[in-house]
Design goal:
By secondary structure, the protein is an all-alpha fold. Helices cover about 65% and strands about 0% of the residues. α1 runs antiparallel to α2.
């Protein structure tokens, strides 16, 4: 699923002259990946069970 999302993000930022993804596509891709990492970190932090 992640590969499909990344391909869609890169495909949205294709250059008209070369047909390849531009710098904006890669920037968006890494911002989306870092956002997903932050969400996963928060989910992990709040999902811990406290015993005692």
């Amino acid at each position: 699923m992640a590969g499909g999302v990344f391909a869609a993000l890169l495909g949205a930022f294709l250059s008209d002259s070369t047909g390849e993804p531009g710098e904006g596509g890669y920037t968006t891709l890494w911002l989306a990946a870092s956002g997903a990492a932050v969400v996963a970190l928060a989910a992990t932090a709040f999902s811990r069970r406290r015993e005692g």
